[in-house]
Design goal:
By secondary structure, this protein is an alpha+beta fold. It has four helices and six strands. The protein has two domains: 52 residues, no CATH class; 101 residues, Ribosomal Protein S8, Chain: A, domain 1. The strands form two sheets. The protein has a four-stranded mixed sheet, with helices on both faces.
């Protein structure tokens, strides 16, 4: 490889040498227990200490803690039609139902717990296989009572919770032909290659 050739150290300038001598005048090596070691006369990196010091001087080591890391930014909450995880054109095409739907999940008849598990598995499988646009049918809810469906309200909230948030780039109500506000177009993120 290198053939034993090591880079040569440059010589210190007179100013650098004076600064080094000034800094090292009060520095002494310490043993593992903190007691100063005697000076090694042959070591060029150690300057002789000319100041009188008591025999049992304890060297205090100050541990410098790195500054705390800033908190991870919270991802922008996903709402119907927002383009937080997509470019503007893709978000617009998603809202209009112009992207090809590659897979569909119908949650009719599921309990909330079963729907959550099924949706999570569906989105993860889609993300892992490279699927980009899916249709999730939630239903519109109680038409006679006028109450919105439980799943219709819960699914968008679930998209903002982990682990689903890591797979979903955005979502929007479906076009009338695909279920209107009882269904959602979901754009999945592109899978990052493993390194």
């Amino acid at each position: 490889m290198g053939g034993g050739n090591r880079p040569r150290r440059r010589r210190l300038s007179a100013d650098e040498k004076a600064l080094w001598d000034h800094v090292t005048q009060s520095v002494r090596r310490a043993s593992a227990d903190g007691d100063p070691l005697p000076l090694d006369e042959d070591d060029p990196d150690v300057a002789e200490d000319t100041t009188p010091t008591p025999k049992k001087t304890r060297v205090r080591r100050r541990l410098i803690e790195p500054p705390p890391l800033p908190p991870a930014p919270n991802p922008v909450p996903l709402t119907h039609g927002t383009a937080a995880g997509m470019d503007r054109r893709t978000a617009q095409r998603l809202r209009r139902g112009k992207l090809d739907v590659e897979a569909t999940l119908d949650l009719h008849g599921h309990t909330q717990a079963a729907a959550h598990r099924t949706l999570e598995r569906f989105l993860q499988d889609g993300y892992m296989t490279g699927t980009r646009t899916v249709l999730v049918i939630t239903g519109k809810g109680d038409r006679l009572g006028g109450k919105p469906g439980v799943l219709r309200d819960a699914v968008p909230r679930w998209f903002n919770e982990m682990p689903m948030r890591q797979w979903v780039a955005g979502f929007s109500y479906a076009a009338p032909k695909d279920g209107g506000d009882g269904a959602l177009y979901v754009r999945l993120k592109r899978r990052k290659p493993l390194r």
